[in-house]
């Protein structure tokens, strides 16, 4: 991959990144919003310190460690990626409460249309803001969106020091086990 400059990253601000989705996925993973590296490359969870791809593999969702540039292979495993808020920012704290609420509304519409078995939101704070559920914790939620169940996962950002790669993989693995059970 070509090394991106600070100017390249800044030029990606507010850019939209296409979802990796299809109807009837087993799990639709939902990030907070694209970071600048993701927007600059067009590949979800592209920042080198982000643990999404290693955790996805360690938890058994993928048979090998995928690179962000291989994101379209997720569809062959019944997996997809979207975001709560579509626009790219350097940090999630650049998003307003209104953007989260509107993102939650649009995400619910998308989930109702695509009907994944599970919506997996990576980041409890983003989930709480998007769905006005201040008491939500990591794990399966009581909320459903249409026929889709909801699971909140830890944020795989390298900034999330509360969770190690191993403990994150355990939680992702709990979702994988639930997703492989019949509906």
Automatic annotation (TrEMBL):
Domain named Uracil-DNA glycosylase-like: residues: 18-179
GO molecular function, one term: pyrimidine-specific mismatch base pair DNA N-glycosylase activity
Pfam families named in the record: UDG
Biological process terms in GO annotation: base-excision repair, AP site formation; epigenetic regulation of gene expression
CDD domains: UDG-F2_TDG_MUG
Gene3D superfamilies per record: Uracil-DNA glycosylase-like domain
E.C. numbers: 3.2.2.28
Residue ranges the record marks as coiled coil: none
SUPFAM superfamilies: Uracil-DNA glycosylase-like (SSF52141)
Keyword Magnesium: no
Major enzyme class: hydrolase
Keyword field: Activator, Chromatin regulator, DNA damage, DNA repair, Glycosidase, Hydrolase, Isopeptide bond, Transcription, Transcription regulation, Ubl conjugation
InterPro entries according to UniProt: MUG/TDG, Uracil-DNA_glycosylase-like, Uracil-DNA_glycosylase-like_sf
PANTHER family: G/T AND G/U MISMATCH-SPECIFIC DNA GLYCOSYLASE, G_T MISMATCH-SPECIFIC THYMINE DNA GLYCOSYLASE
UniProt name for this protein: G/U mismatch-specific DNA glycosylase
Protein's organism: Streptomyces triticiradicis
